[in-house]
Specification:
The complex is a heterodimer of chains A (282) and B (286). With 282 residues, chain A is mainly alpha-helical. Helices cover 77% and strands 1% of the residues of chain A. Chain B has twelve helices and two strands; from the N terminus they run H-H-E-E-H-H-H-H-H-H-H-H-H-H. Classes of the chains: A mainly alpha (282), B mainly alpha (286).
Chain lengths: 282, 286
Amino acid sequence: MAVNIRYLKDQLGILLLWTCGALTLGIMLMITLYILWNGLPIISLGFLSADPIQGGKSGGIFPTIVATLFITIIALILSAPLSIGGAIYMAEYAGENTLTRLVRFGADSLAGIPSIIIGLFGYLLFVSYTKLGFSLISGSLAVAFMAMPIILRVSEEAIKVVPESYKHGSLAIGATKWQTIRKVVLPTAIPGIITGLMLGMGRVVGETAVFLLTTGSVAQIPTSLSSAVRPMTVHMYIIATENISLPYAFGTAATLLIIVLIITLTSNYITRRYFVKLGGRR
Amino acid sequence: MKIWEKLVEISLFICAISSVMIIALIFLFIIYNGFPIIISKGLISFVFGGTWKPDSGVYGVFPLLVGSFVITILSLVISVPLSLGCAMLISEIAPEWIRNLLRPAIDTLAGIPSIIYGLFGLVILVPFIMNNLGGPGQSVLACGIVLAVMVLPTIVSISEDSMKSVPRELREGSLALGATRWQMITGIVVPSALSGIVASIVLAMGRSIGETMAVIMVCGGVAKIPSSLLSPVYPMTAIIASEWGYASGDHQVALFAVGIVLLFIIMILNIVILFSRRYNLKGHKV
């Protein structure tokens, strides 16, 4: 009898786990399909290429796409060198000491700082103190802080899984440490670093709170770094909550979702191939 | 040549330390700008004051603080069992092809921008709650559910990682002694991976408390301590984002002060995670 209860528990427990898995899959499908179902019919060439009319009631979302694109590019240009440099230091130079632990704690903490706080900080430092105003550049600078920890962590992992034998080979033929890193380690780690950049990009594209506090909200194509802009996420927030146009909010959401899904799924595909190839875990 | 090498090392070090400097700057700026109101109102009456009425210059953060905690706890109550179940399934039970289906699904959930979760909550969840359970719809419950879905990927991926790193020998030992798979999971895998699981939950808690855009659309925006699951709330993040647009003078300073409270909660959670990681490292030497 005791044996039977044991096996019954086993069956029930495992059934429960399968239910959790099915639920998770169901939730994911429900959300993505619902957004796409309501948004895809709105998306057309006109929607993607026209200016918003009457604050987004009709017309399109072209300026917001341009704003998101510019912000993403500028934020990555700003954060990539710092975070990849940091990753190289953490993976190749740093030993296990208080300083390294401090740096790792800093990166982890930065990743955990809520976006609204980054927004407040960005407002204070860029919009107000350095007088950059509500602008493309303020938004890009602030959101660069959000991309940094992701790029740093993923690149660090990518550099760490480069096999020691590669480095030893290079050092043995007389290359200096930096030469080894530049010519051997980095080329091998490139797919992993690209993944990090893409994940950072995904974070920037989907960010809203930071932009709400730093970019201003003018739905126009920016003419300079100091123009006020309205990224896609902010546009979507405004037209959905101010009851301007729900269908258009879905159209914007679907466009955003497609962009983010392409970024996430590609980067995960690269990661899996890369880490499996080098025999790391993941 | 030697100098060049040293120069490279120093500049890479500066890159690495920059995140620490940014954290320090964030603290400095937010505290400097929010502190005046805490001084003038007194720390106790600011943090534990029960009324938030910017029009009459009364700033008590307590209802917002409670709001943030209530929705966070609710989101964990919903999310923890679901995501741990999912993690156990992926790590212990599921065959390869199911794993290859579930992992991208979880990556997708992790990638969806928070504002889209907010939109989904506003259009589907809020009317559903209003029509079937009553109340205004924008409620603690709506926030809890939206946040639960948002933090699910965090808990699943980190706890799955730590379950996967439980040594094979432990599992095989328990199966060889005649344990069922369920007994192996609950008796061996979960206890061995416990520190990682706890870390994932604390991390999820931080994400939940700090989330802004998803909750701003479904919280209702009433700065009172919620009396039931169906009453509206105003979490700290949401009040900063939505009152920011028209706040000025003292009101703006008060919003920075709310930021200070939020920042301290997040840093405490970060320190907890730091220690649980350290414990984790020790645990793995078994």
